[in-house]
User: Fold this.
Amino acid sequence: METPTKLPPSSPSSPTTGFSVPSAEKVDGFPRRSMRRARQRRSHSSSQFRYQSSQVELTPLPLLKDAPVAELHDLFCKKLQQCCVLFDFLDCVADLKGKEIKRAALNELVESVATSRGVLIEPLYPEAIKMISVNIFRTLPPSENPEFDPEEDEPALEASWPHLQLVYEFFLRFLESPDFQPSLAKRYVDQKFVLQLLELFDSEDPREREYLKTILHRVYGKLLGLRAYIRKQINNIFLRFIYETERFNGVAELLEILGSIINGFALPLKSEHKQFLVRVLIPLHTAKSLSIFHAQLAYCVVQFMEKDATVTEHIIRGLLRYWPKTCTQKEVMFLGEIEEILDVIEPSQFIRVQEPLFKQIAACISSPHFQVAERALYFWNNEYILSLIEENCQVILPLVFGTLYRVSKEHWNQTIISLIYNVLKTFMEMNSKLFDDLTASYKVEKQKELKKEKERVELWRNLEDLQEQRLQSLTEASRNQKNLQERENTTKSQSETSAANTT
Amino acid sequence: MAGADSDDSLYPIAVLIDELRNEDVQLRLNSIKKLSTIALALGVERTRTELLPFLTDTIYDEDEVLLALAEQLGNFTMLVGGPEYVHCLLPPLESLATVEETVVRDKAVESLRKISHEHSPVDLEVHFEPLVKRLASGDWFTSRTSACGLFSVCYPRVSSTVKAEIRQHFRTLCSDDTPMVRRAAASKLGEFAKVLELEYVKSDIISLFTALASDEQDSVRLLAVEAGVSIATLLPQEDLEALVMPTLRQAAEDKSWRVRYMVADKFSDLQKAVGPEITKNDLVPAFQNLLKDCEAEVRAAAANKVKEFCENLPEDSRETIIMTHILPCVKELVSDTNQHVKSALASVIMGLSTILGKDNTIEHLLPLFLAQLKDECPEVRLNIISNLDCVNEVIGIRQLSQSLLPAIVELAEDAKWRVRLAIIEYMPLLAGQLGVEFFDEKLNSLCMAWLVDHVYAIREAATCNLMKLVEKFGAEWAQNTIVPKVLGMANDPNYLHRMTTLFCINALSEVCGQEITTKHMLPVVFKMSNDQVANVRFNVAKSLQKIGPVLDSNCLQTEVKPVLEKLASDQDMDVKYFAQEAISGRIKKMKRNRK
Assistant:
């Protein structure tokens, strides 16, 4: 199931991501407001430092490479402990010496784990995991920008990254080391650890999420006992994202991991996995921020189909159910995903969904937004889809003919009209008899629709009249009842007073 | 009613169901929204036997349709034949309470809660409570989440055996595997505690509260805070310390800022719930910590509560606590690095003056007000200015006027038009408190400058502001100070400014009265009817229509009417249109007067 994921660059001096705010500002003489905000913000983005009240003075230890073999493990352990000290990165000039000592120690640890064999012995596991936990597990700070838009705004970058990156690098090298023994690690990398790791995926800093992605992938690959738990917790994160908060920065990264996990599912698919598809992956399409993770999501969906063709109908009907009503941008994404799906669909599955699917495609073709209409019409340029349409021309042509005919006369955009002419021409060549029949009956059908509409209006008018009558008779009835009751009450009270009088 | 029932056959259920199944979502939605009409047409019997089973079976639709359905069913009791049949509504609502979409589920639960009150105690046990149990033990988290909101409505009206079962189910959900369900349970914990007998609050609820408040997920913990407040109100004073305070103390120092934020946000409620003694001993230091929290979000939430917290302190020690414990923190917040914190503080800080009295205000608070009036962030300054009335009562606004003026001037010229708009809205208030002399001397020129602002919204607000000022200072003041300036703008080379004159006249004519309007304003309006810009001319027509009611009928007939008639034959279409509108509007009004 392992798909090679590109490793983040490990050397601390190399540029880690494509972020270069200052240079972008230089090119563009008018810095965007979000960038200005980003710079202000960056100084606030660490919640980490508050937990340590008294600062320990660090003293440099001897270098690992100079240590005699007998003392190596002891020194390694001391360095791990030294790296548990946290520094205040909000104040960039505070304790520079200590920061440098820790940075150098971390660098040494990374190098040692990556290059030399036999370093990772059992007593080091708890120390290593403790050092990692102390450094990376923290409550993420509140987003400085409550309307943070991952597509528009610059993310808040983690202030303590110079150390944090090395800790992540160490963790990764630790997991990837040939000496790494899952049976020892599983005592320390447990469910609680994984849960905290997953929560960090909400980090706004893309560099951190990139590391987390690779690390979680390795954990999933090596610690088999945690797999089901990891999947369940990812489910919970997604469900919360879909139905509760709509905010989570790491959806794309988690989906990327899931893409390769799905790839490794055994056949036949377990019901747990099918449930994940239907109840989590498909509803993820409803998210407002779909564009950020749509590519990864569509990949996961197609992976499922390639594993087991019988889920096709669930997928298509699910997408149709959540089809965007007002957001044309998302509609274009949905159409793209449908094309990806149709590219690998089995003909027998296609038949099961063609009717609702082509009703939706017809609706898209008649969209006044030309990009939606255009995207839908491009389906006819796809040879495999075209062959499916041809095989089922008898069903599909009647579904779309009315729309094509009407839109070809009405659409404001010339490109759409010419695309439609091509589609109509293709259909004519496919089945000229059916095409002629439909052309001939078009007007009659239209008339029928109008008549039906009239009947509907009539029905509702009658229903409303009836409601009026009923309500009237109901109020009358209740009024009568009230009167009756009142009369009873008065007679009762009268009799009561007379009874009282007699006593 | 029996007579009306007999023509049911007119509407075979199939036709109506077709409507509920229409392919077009919008039509389907419309039909569902008129479900009561359909039910009424079918009559109670067939609604029960045909319509409801159909609705129960075919619940797979757009969430929007389901939402409408869930809402409708909450008001359906009469349509199924009254309270004795209300349980017929449970099956469709039960399915709706299990769907994925949160808004649908919430609406279904809301409807279920509503109709639960219409069940008789017997029906509640026979029909309603089993439904709650089924939901509480559902496979998927959605149904369990929904169940959390239903316990408290049936608990008070069932037998003690059933009560024990309900408590057991609630306990199970509080330790559910999925955080979604635990969150739902935590958010209903307070509500559930309220309907429980005190002994069970102590034996059951406290342990659940403690567990939820130390959940591994901060989203659960923060919901427990609110429950803690409700629980504290239920317990006798002597139990509070042992049963809830340890947990609440821990929440105030939680490692997640979200939980601390929640504590800060609920602080006033908490204070009322725990009473004066615990407030003095525990909440004061906790509040100090929140005001000094490392996250700005928490500090801002706490700053928002400063006034309320101080107000609710026990009277005997209020002043000491504020002066020795709260005020030092407040002083620090005035120069906080985060503008949201400062502006939250600015929105309440003035309220402290009434609590502390004149001398303390002058000595301790005034410097803070002045500092905030000079803050770099306009929102902070605005918040101070908008609450001036609190200080006015205690020390009088004059104490502030030295710093007030520069602050107002700076806001009045702020680059953001929304800031300018906000300060305009406080002008009438300021004018009232500072008095007419101060106003004429310092602020009048600002008010006039806004009239020529380049943003329309500001010009519009400035116009309205003038009207309010005249209401305060009277027509004579208007005639001497603002009317000449307004009318002067009628000769401005910029047509937008000339139009502003008209808009001001529209706003001012009524408050200034007939004499000023006829004598000073009307001639200017007439003159502008010859303006070369059509927009000005048709606004003349509109203005004449507006100020018509202020003028006497003689003037209308002899002076206004000819001008309008001339405009009605203007070459510009719009001018013609509005002139005709004005003439016909005037005629209508005259007719009405005659009647």
Summary: The domain at 280-412 of chain B is CATH 1.25.10.10 (Leucine-rich Repeat Variant). Confidence is low (pLDDT under 50) at residues 1-9 of chain B. The two ends of chain B are 46 Å apart (CA to CA).
